[in-house]
Amino acid sequence: DIQMTQSPSSLSASVGDRVTITCRASQRIITYLNWYQQKPGKAPKLLIYAASSLQSGVPSRFSGTGSGTDFTLTISTLQPEDFATYYCQQSYITPRSFGQGTKLEIK
Amino acid sequence: QVQLQESGPGLVKPSETLSLTCTVSGDSINNYYWSWIRQPPGRGLEWIGYIYYSGSTDYNPSLKSRVTISVDTSKNQFSLKLSSVTAADTAVYYCARDIRAQHLPSYYYYYMDVWGKGTTVTVSS
C-alpha cells in the first residue's frame, strides 16, 4: 500500500495569508494526486485533481503542484471560508489512500 | 446536477451486517465508477472500494473479506454490505462518484468529484 504523509498536521493562519500544505507519498505516484477540503460535519469537497488541475467551481486562489512523491497545495490569499481540514489522496494504485489531514485554523 | 444520498440503518449490532444504499439523482449511474469511503469519529478518510456500473469491483484489502459492493442500474443505486461488524466499523459512511480520465495508455486519473452528505453508522449492542 502507498502511505501518504501530510505536513503540517495543523496550521494556524490569518485571513489574507498565503498557506502551503505538503503531501509526500511513500512511492512514486507520478501526478495521480487529489486534494479535498472538508468542513466539520460535511462531506469532503474535491479541490484539485491530477496534482494541478483545478476542479470546476473552485476558486483560483487554490493551486496544486508536484510530481513523483512530493506535492503541495497552496492557498494564495486565505479567506474566512477556507478554514477547514485538507486531505491529499493518491489514485495511482488501489487501495486508494488518503493523508492524515491538515487542519487549518484561524490564528 | 448530480446528487448522491446514502440511506440505511444508523445502528448495527456487533457481528451483524451493515447495509447501505446510495441513490444517484440528476444523472445516470451508467458509464461511471462509484466509491464508498468511511470516516471514524475524529479520524481521517478510508477508501472502502468502488464499483463500475457494469458490476466490476475493487476493494480495500484491509476490508476485502467482509465487503460487497453491488449496483442496480434500474434503480440508479449502488450498495455496500460489510459483514461481521465490530465497534471499529463505527463511522460516517460516504458514497461518491469516481471519475476516470485517461492520462497515458493504460493509466487513468481517478478522482471523486461528487459526494453524498454521509450517514453515521454506529456499531453497538
What does this structure look like?
The complex is a heterodimer of chains A (107) and B (125). Chain A is an all-beta fold and 107 residues long. Helix content of chain A is 0%, strand content 50%. Chain A has strands spanning 4-7, 10-13, 19-25, 33-38, 45-49, 53-54, 62-67, 70-75, 85-90, 97-98, 102-106. In chain A, strands 2, 4, 5, 6, 9, 10 and 11 form a seven-stranded mixed β-sheet that branches. In chain A, strands 1-3-8-7 form a four-stranded antiparallel β-sheet, with no helix packed on it. Chain A is globular, with a radius of gyration of 13 Å. Chain B has strands at residues 3-7, 11-12, 18-25, 33-39, 46-52, 57-59, 67-72, 77-82, 91-104, 107-115, 119-123. The mean pLDDT of chain B is 96. With 125 residues, chain B is mainly beta. Chain B is globular and about 50 Å long. In chain B, strand 5 (46-52) and strand 6 form a beta hairpin. The relative contact order of chain B is 0.31. In chain B, the strands form two sheets. In chain B, strands 2, 4, 5, 6, 9, 10 and 11 form a seven-stranded mixed β-sheet that branches. Chain B has a four-stranded antiparallel β-sheet with strand order 1-3-8-7, with no helix packed on it. The chains are: A mainly beta (107), B mainly beta (125).
List key phrases describing it.
A: mainly beta; 4-stranded antiparallel sheet; 11 strands; 50% strand; globular; B: 125 residues; mainly beta; 7-stranded mixed sheet
**What distance separates the N and C termini of chain A?**
36 Å
Amount of beta strand of chain B: over 45%
What is the overall number of helices of chain B? 0
The chain pair forming the largest interface, with residue counts per chain, is:
A-B, 25 and 25 residues
Mean of residue pLDDT of chain A? 97
What is the general shape of chain B? globular
Mean pLDDT of chain B: 96
Unreliable sequence segments of chain A: none
- Rg of chain B, Å, rounded: 14 Å
